[in-house]
């Protein structure tokens, strides 16, 4: 934890790969993986004489992202050229946006321990991703794969509004959740489709000026982002306490040692000489275009949360939990439609499903079963076909193989026996075979009933409806 | 508007160019002339005119999001000085 007399200030540049079918400036596939350089053409390989043509979906998706994060949309936008030499960028420049980003001045709301907080978004712009450099371990050189070069990205630049690693995680999760809801990205962090450059500085509490910041690039897991920020804040405070200055520099986070290292990049190299991209024309957006996109947006988490609390009487905690992921939220809605029991569905998602995912170290997007299965499962509990203990076992099964719960309990023989005549048969048999217990009960030993019920449960392998069993024993014993 | 020797050295560095002493001198002078020529445009009266955001008047030249597989990696790699396993092979890049 950071010392009480200091404050950490964090701003994020989040890069998100858009889930368009094709690249931003050519018709090559954006599919992840694939043999090296097979999703390439002369345009994304920067062959002389080729020209880029902007993908219309990239503009649409970026505007969607802007509208879903309360941004204003730039109606007179354009692309700019950002110049730098690095072998993952075949053109020796990246087509990005400089002074006319598609979206600007937005915000998202996060939950913190002190309640809701708004994190302001400075801008969202479109740009192209770079290729991948494979470093050969035998020292034979570096191998360049340009499949990813030209995959469309949006970069979401926040204001330095975050004050702890927990707020950063909440902000990142919020962006991820929104982009999943509006279906502009698969947001798979492990594949690098969502990653962040993290800017960290510290200052004495109450100070007006920001401290000097350091930047950690391309962070792609929540855990590492949190660890890196906590480490870096501590390091900066220690330096300052020793009377040293913080250098403005790029750092590399090493997750094995849990430390940051200076990348010693040349300070003067950060001169990208942006200028308007001469190979592309302006992007002009009409009010009508923007309004049509606004209308096409699905219901967003804030509104869903409100509805879940008002219409379905979920607790605020449960509602927050369910809407945090599109996958939970859709599961919840679909299941509730089927079983009409939002409370149980919400609780099952929040406790059992989240627990199993956690044990499997998976995120909600890994869920294979749908609301159809979950809805039936809850209905089966409500109808008394299975107990909630059995329901948990069914849920575990659903993670292994997607089948209708009714089918699972039938195959596993987990159906609760609620047929009165069948249970009566068992009761009669147990009474017949345990004359002594019957006599004990009649002599006033109430415990004997428990023994008899236990024997009947054993006989039915735990499937007898316990209420019914009790009732029938009592009836018979009173005779 | 005068350009300094230091600026030429800086620009050359950004462009990854090694300039000799004579080249630095020559380019400082040449660049000065280019800038003076380009400065003409700064003297045009633009009052009351709309802001231009691109080099030509056109806007929204866009493509449908439909995959076209180029489908010939060999051609794309054929002029590479060195290649291996379907990739360009370049001198080792230190990250």
Strand order of the largest sheet of chain B: 2-3
| Overall morphology of chain A | elongated
CATH architecture heading of the domain at 5-43 in chain B:
Orthogonal Bundle
Would you tell me the overall average pLDDT of chain B?
90
Largest interface: A-B, 52 and 37 residues
Report the β-strand fraction of chain B as a percent range.
5-15%
Strand residue content of chain A = 15-25%
- From the N-terminal CA to the C-terminal CA of chain A, the straight-line distance is 70 Å
The backbone outline of chain B, from C-alpha atoms, is flat
Percent of residues of chain A in helical segments? Answer: 40-55%
The termini of chain B sit apart by 39 Å
Order of helices and strands of chain B: HHEHEE
Query: Segments of chain B where pLDDT lies below 50 for 5+ residues?
Result: none
Q: State the share of residues found in helices of chain B, binned by percent.
A: 25-40%
Mean pLDDT of chain A: 92
By DSSP (H or I, 4+ residues per run), the number of helices of chain B equals 3
Overall description:
The complex is a heterodimer of chains A (479) and B (95). Chain A has 479 residues and is α+β, with helices and mostly antiparallel strands. Chain A folds into 3 domains: 6-289, no CATH class; 299-412, no CATH class; 420-478, Arc Repressor Mutant, subunit A (Orthogonal Bundle), CATH 1.10.10.410. Chain A contains 15 helices and 17 strands. In chain A, strands 3-7-8-11-1-12-13-14-15 form a 9-stranded mixed sheet. A 3-stranded antiparallel sheet of chain A has the order 6-5-16, with no helix packed on it. In chain A, helix 2 (165-181) runs antiparallel to helix 3. Chain B is mainly α and 95 residues long. Chain B has a domain at 5-43: Histone, subunit A (Orthogonal Bundle), CATH 1.10.20. Helices cover 35% and strands 8% of the residues of chain B. Chain B has helices at 5-14, 21-38, 73-77, and strands at 62-63, 83-84, 87-90. Chain B has a two-stranded antiparallel ribbon. The longest helix of chain B has 18 residues, at 21-38. Chain B is flat and about 55 Å long. The two termini of chain B are 39 Å apart. The interface between A and B is large, with 52 and 37 residues. Strand 10 of chain A pairs antiparallel with strand 3 (87-90) of chain B.
């Amino acid at each position: 934890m950071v010392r009480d007399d200091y404050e950490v200030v964090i701003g994020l540049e989040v890069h998100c790969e858009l889930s368009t079918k094709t690249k931003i400036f050519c018709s090559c596939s954006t599919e992840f993986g694939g043999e090296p350089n097979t999703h390439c053409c002369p345009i994304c390989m920067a062959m002389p004489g080729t020209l880029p043509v902007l993908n219309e979906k990239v503009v649409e998706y970026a505007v969607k992202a802007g509208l879903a994060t309360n941004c204003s949309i730039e109606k007179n936008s354009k692309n700019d050229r950002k110049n730098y030499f690095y072998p993952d960028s075949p053109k020796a420049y990246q087509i990005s946006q400089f002074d006319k980003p598609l979206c600007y001045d937005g915000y998202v709301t996060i939950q913190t321990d002190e309640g809701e907080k708004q994190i302001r978004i400075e801008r969202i712009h479109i740009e192209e991703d770079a290729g991948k450099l494979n470093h050969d371990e035998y020292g034979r050189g570096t191998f360049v794969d340009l499949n990813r070069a030209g995959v469309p990205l949006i970069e979401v630049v926040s204001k330095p509004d975050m004050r702890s690693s927990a707020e950063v995680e909440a902000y990142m999760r919020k962006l991820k959740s929104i982009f999943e809801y509006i279906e502009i990205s698969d947001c798979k962090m492990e594949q690098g489709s969502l990653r962040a450059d993290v800017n960290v500085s510290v200052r004495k509490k109450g100070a007006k000026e920001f401290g000097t910041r350091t930047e950690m690039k391309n962070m792609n897991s929540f855990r590492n982002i949190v660890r890196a920020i906590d480490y870096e804040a501590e390091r900066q405070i220690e330096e300052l306490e020793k009377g040293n200055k913080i250098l403005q520099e790029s750092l590399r986070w090493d997750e094995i040692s849990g430390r940051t290292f200076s990348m010693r990049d040349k300070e003067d190299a950060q001169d990208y000489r942006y200028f308007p991209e001469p190979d592309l024309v302006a992007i002009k957006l009409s009010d009508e275009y923007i309004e049509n996109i606004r209308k096409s947006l699905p219901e967003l988490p804030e509104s869903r949360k409100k509805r879940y609390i008002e219409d379905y009487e979920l607790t605020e905690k449960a509602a927050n939990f369910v809407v945090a992921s599109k996958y939970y939220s859709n599961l919840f809605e679909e299941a509730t439609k089927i079983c009409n029991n939002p409370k149980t569905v919400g609780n099952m998602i929040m406790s059992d499903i989240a627990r199993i995912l956690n044990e499997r170290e998976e995120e909600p997007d890994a869920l294979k079963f749908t609301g159809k299965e979950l809805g039936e499962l809850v209905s089966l509990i409500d109808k008394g076909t299975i107990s909630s203990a059995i329901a948990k076992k069914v849920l575990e099964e659903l993670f292994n193989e997607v089948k209708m719960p009714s089918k699972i309990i039938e195959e596993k023989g987990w159906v609760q026996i609620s047929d009165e005549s069948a249970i009566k048969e068992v009761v009669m048999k147990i009474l017949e075979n345990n004359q002594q217990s019957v006599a004990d009960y009649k002599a006033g030993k109430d415990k004997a009933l428990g023994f008899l019920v236990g024997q009947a449960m054993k006989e039915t392998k735990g499937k007898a409806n316990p209420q019914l069993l009790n009732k029938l024993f009592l009836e018979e014993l009173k005779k | 508007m005068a350009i300094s020797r230091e600026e030429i050295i800086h620009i050359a560095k950004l462009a990854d160019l090694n300039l000799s002493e004579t080249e630095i001198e020559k380019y400082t002078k040449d660049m000065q002339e280019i800038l003076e020529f380009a400065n003409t445009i700064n003297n045009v009266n633009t009052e009351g005119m709309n802001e231009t955001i691109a080099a030509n008047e056109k806007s929204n030249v866009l493509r449908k999001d439909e995959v076209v597989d180029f489908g010939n990696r060999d051609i794309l790699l054929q002029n590479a000085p060195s290649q291996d396993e379907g990739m360009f092979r370049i001198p080792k890049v230190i990250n």
